[in-house]
Amino acid sequence: MSLYLALDFGGTKLAAGLVEAATGAVLARVRRPSPGDAWRSIEEMVDMARQALAEGRRARSDVAGVGVSFGGPVDEARQRVRLSHHVPGWENLPLVQEVSRALALPTAMDNDANVQALGEWRFGAGRGVADLLFVNVGTGIGGGVIVGGRLHRGRHGLAGEVGHTVVKPDGPPCTCGKRGCVESLAAGPGIARAARDALRESGRGGKLRALAGGDPAAVTGELVFRAAADGDELALAALADACRYLGIGIANAAAIVDPELIVVGGGVAKAGELFFGPLREAARAHAAPLDREMLRIVPGALGDDANILGAAALAEQENRRT
């Protein structure tokens, strides 16, 4: 049996899917806003899972298991949530136990970056490779590592956290408490902050300023990408800086992991060479000489289904272990 329920608990949204793992086909998708509370989120998600079964015209008995992607730190060994940075009430919550009891199905969970890494390896850009480094770039920067076809979590479940490696010790504060992490410089908010500061200090950035309605405070990472695609020099410079810092982080991680392939997902996967050209150049410039020509960096292929397909891949992998 290769049919799995896949559940994605995000900070602002919930998603459930019914996935045929043999083909990677998503037979049903259900998406709703997060209710902003842990226990209400679980109740909502269980209802969404049942809706996905109904829309996919499948019974619970047709399903081999449930995979859960959680947008925050998890205790993988105990299958508990550590905390959420966005929604209250998740601290030390036994999410797997609750979902498994409600749906009467074996359930497995991991954090969203690990799940996305597994999804890209199983169904996306990483199909056919044994060793993969995955980096997700969005509001934050997460990562995951596949070694020998298995997800490598590390002793504390923190392997692959490229976003929290320091590339500029005197850089801006990061959400983790350090300064100059890749995330603080190359994630969406960091890109937006750098562009806002540049707008306030110079008369450049006319296209970006126009997109922001003349107010530098209204600049977002998305607007920087839009202005850069339209040739705005200030936006292009902000994007180049972000690519440089992300490239340094990736080069450092590649020196340790030695992956066959590096997959970069999140919203930037749709940005094309505007983003991936400077990123590849920066990563190779900071890689060890023997690594430069071997660094293969490609965009993620799963788009909005990355968490759903990754959660299904997690459930499939756990099902094969038992």
List keywords for this structure.
10 helices, alpha/beta, Nucleotidyltransferase, domain 5, globular, 322 residues, 5-stranded mixed beta sheet, 39% helix, single chain
CATH architecture of the largest domain: 2-Layer Sandwich
* CATH structural fold name of the largest domain: Nucleotidyltransferase, domain 5
CATH class of the largest domain: Alpha Beta
Major sheet attributes: 5 strands, mixed
- Strand content range: 15-25%
User: Radius of gyration, Cα only, in angstroms?
Assistant: 20 Å
Summed over residues and divided by their number, the pLDDT gives a mean of: 93
| Oligomeric state of the chains present here | single chain
> CATH superfamily membership of the largest domain, which one?
ATPase, nucleotide binding domain
Distance between the termini: 14 Å
**Strand tally:** 12
Describe this structure in words.
The protein folds into 2 domains: 136 residues, 2-Layer Sandwich (Nucleotidyltransferase, domain 5); 173 residues, ATPase, nucleotide binding domain (Nucleotidyltransferase, domain 5). It contains 10 helices and 12 strands. A 5-stranded mixed beta sheet has the order 3-2-1-4-7. A 5-stranded mixed beta sheet has the order 10-9-8-11-12, sandwiched between helices. Helix 1 runs parallel beside helix 2, helix 5 runs antiparallel to helix 8 and helix 8 crosses helix 9. The two termini are 14 Å apart. 50% of the residues are buried. The model has no long low-confidence stretch (mean pLDDT 93).
